């Protein structure tokens, strides 16, 4: 690995560590278990591979929202069970593909919603707020610290 590449990855790793730290603080403040906040893999994608299509804001925010809607639909129509959670994950992938919001880390949302029988408030906090804050953090991080322009486009 070239020295420049190593330096870039160290900065991306530092950004990810700071973002996860902020996520932990938000979880404590909101009294939400960190295991129910679906953003660690999103952080890794948006900061580690900012050029990737699934790392763009439309996919980040839209993918999390779409997958939550699928999760709640499955929960309401089928009820909480492991097969229902699996169905939710599969349908969320299809829905994200159809809406142009493919963000693979968001696939965890239906699983959490169905197995934990989460309240619809979950789509607002932590999901919508968290996704927007992560996009804002990534924008600031890549503009101020990284030499990688992000995003390629907002929508």
TrEMBL record:
It comes from the Bacteria. Keywords: Membrane, Transmembrane, Transmembrane helix. InterPro entries: HPP, TM_HPP. It holds the Pfam family TM_HPP. The keyword Iron-sulfur does not apply. The keyword ATP-binding does not apply. Residues 4-150 form the HPP transmembrane region domain. This is HPP family protein. It comes from Aquabacter spiritensis.
């Amino acid at each position: 690995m070239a020295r420049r590449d190593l330096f870039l990855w160290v900065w991306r790793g530092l950004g990810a560590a700071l973002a996860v730290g902020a996520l932990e603080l938000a979880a404590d403040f909101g009294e939400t278990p960190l295991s129910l906040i679906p953003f660690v893999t999103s952080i890794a994608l948006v900061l580690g591979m900012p050029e990737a299509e699934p790392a763009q804001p439309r996919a980040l925010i839209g993918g999390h929202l779409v997958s939550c809607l699928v999760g709640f639909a499955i929960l309401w129509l089928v009820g909480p069970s492991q097969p229902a959670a699996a169905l939710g994950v599969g349908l969320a992938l299809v829905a994200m593909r159809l809406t142009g919001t493919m963000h693979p880390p968001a696939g965890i949302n239906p699983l959490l919603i169905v197995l934990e029988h989460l309240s619809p408030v979950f789509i607002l906090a932590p999901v919508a707020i968290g996704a927007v804050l992560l996009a804002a953090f990534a924008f600031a991080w890549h503009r101020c610290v990284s030499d990688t322009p992000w995003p390629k486009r907002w929508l």
